[in-house]
Every structure is written in C-alpha cells, then in structure tokens.
Design goal:
Blueprint lengths: L5 H12 L2 H17 L2 H42 L1 H21 L3 H13 L9 H4 L7 H8 L1 H9 L9 H4 L16 H14 L11 H10 L7 H17 L9 H4 L23
Helix pairs in contact: 2-3, 3-4, 4-5, 4-10, 4-12, 5-10, 10-11
C-alpha cells in the first residue's frame, strides 16, 4: 500500500464526511426544540430537511452515473489501444501527485484525475493501423493522430465536470508558465504528467528514458511547454516517494507499470513525447 500523509488523510475525511456534521448540529437543535416547544415543531423542521436530503441523494446518483460513464469510455479506449491501458492510469497517478503537492482543492483534484483519465479519449477516432504502428510515425501520420485532440475536446466540453478545462487539454492551447495566472492550473498538471510518462515508457522505436533525463527535459522546456511549479511538484513528489519506498501503483497490476512495449505496437507513440528526446 502507499503511505498517506496525515494532511491528505485529514482532507479526505473532511471531503467525504462533511455532510455528517450538519446533522449532528441539527440533532442537538431539534432536541432543544422538542423540549421547549413540543413534537409539532420537530415535524415542521424535519420535513424540509428530508426534502433536501432527497435532492442530495439524487445528485449523488447522477454523479455516480457520470463516473460510470467515464470508466466505460476509458475501457473502450483501452480495448482499442493496448498502450493506453497503462498510460492513462499512470498519467492519472502522476497528476494526483502534482495536484497534492500544489495543494489544490478537492474539487480541482477530482477534475484533474478525471481529465487525466480522459485526455486521450479522442484516440477512439484514430485508425488502429496508426495507433499500433511498430515504428516512428511520419509527419503526415503524426498530424493525423494529433487530430484525436480535437475529438477529445469535443467529448470533454460536453461533460459538466470537465467542461471548464476542455479547451486547454488540446496541444493548441498555451501551457507556458506565464499563462497560469489567467488560465486553470489543471491543464498544466496534465501536460507535465503526460509528458513524463511518455518519456519514461518504452516505445517500439526507443527504450524508456532514465528518470533523470526525463526530469532534465521537463526543466529545459519550462516556459514554453510546461509550468515551472508543476514540473517542480512532480520531481519533488516522485523523489519523495522513492525515498519513502512507496510504489507508484496501489491497486493496479504491476504489468501496467512495466516499461516493456505493448505486444501490438507503440500505441499512439509520440503523443506525449518531447521532440527528439535522447534514447537510452
């Protein structure tokens, strides 16, 4: 299992159990009203509370259905692209690391995680022969594969949870450090996590880059492709977990973390790579 920081545990408790505390206060309040006024006042107070609870339960069911739809889309993508099965999970994990280091709010962290899982969903529109080509893509093929970003944008902008960040997930949007004060931080997080996993995973045309090389490439592209604070957060988080002996994976098959290439080819190779990164 992965060792959790006390602050992260506290945030999780506050996030998932906050709804209990108002009911505790309400119970004390109703008890006092019952003693002072009688049972009639309890009925008058409890009725709107129960109505509000029903509304909250309905919202929770809608959210669960929403998350189930996301998982279904990811499964569909994994069945089409063997590389993606491990890639999206790793990107989501690295994105979680960065979001935690940056101290993002729970709602922002949920958006980051969901967007990381969905950032390559547009590959569903890409022919299999391109996704699974066993060598480097030509310039024409690469541009064709990059069109998956347009499909991803169209899908994400129709999802309430991810609509606020959908424009910035595509490569055409600015991801430089100076853009952070004016745009959401979530796309910057995903860009760094995606590039790091692409560089540290083996492709059919090159082996995985050493971690130190990947870190250097990220630093060298700060201000043009990546945000300084996101890069620093990833490097610190990965280094800290290595020192603590924590594994990247918790409930994921170890094979998904392996840098062995997929049996059917690179699987959209190059989409998250930095151009001409040195091979080991």
């Amino acid at each position: 299992y992965e060792r959790a920081r006390p602050s992260a545990v506290l945030r999780s408790l506050l996030e998932w159990h906050w709804h209990i505390y108002p009911f505790a206060v309400l119970g004390v309040f109703l008890g006092r009203l019952y003693l002072d006024v009688g049972p009639t006042i309890v009925v008058l107070v409890v009725t709107p509370v129960l109505a509000a609870r029903g509304t909250f339960a309905s919202y929770a069911r809608v959210r669960e259905a929403h998350e189930a739809a996301l998982r279904t889309l990811v499964l569909a993508l994994e069945s089409k692209d063997p590389y993606t099965a491990g890639h999206v999970e790793r990107v989501a994990t690295y994105a979680d690391y960065i979001a935690e280091e940056l101290g993002l709010r729970p709602a922002a962290r949920r958006r980051v995680h969901a967007a990381a899982l969905m950032h390559d969903i547009g590959k569903l529109a890409i022919p299999n022969q391109l996704l699974n080509k066993p060598d480097r893509l030509t310039a024409f093929e690469y541009e064709r594969v990059r069109r998956h970003e347009e499909v991803t944008f169209e899908i994400l902008r129709r999802i309430d949870l991810l609509r606020p960040i959908s424009p910035s997930i595509t490569a055409r949007q600015p991801r430089v450090e100076r853009a952070w004060p004016r745009t959401a931080i979530e796309p910057c997080v995903i860009a760094v996590a995606d590039a790091y996993d692409a560089m540290t995973s083996t492709r059919a045309y090159r082996r995985a880059l050493p971690r130190e090389v990947a870190f250097r490439e990220l630093r060298d592209n700060v201000g043009t492709q990546f945000d300084q604070r996101c890069v620093d957060a990833l490097i610190h988080a990965v280094g800290q977990r290595d020192q603590d002996g924590d594994s990247v994976w918790v409930d994921i098959d170890e094979q998904l973390w392996s840098v062995m290439p997929p049996v059917m080819g690179p699987g959209s190779a190059g989409l998250g790579d930095l151009a001409d990164a040195p091979a080991r």
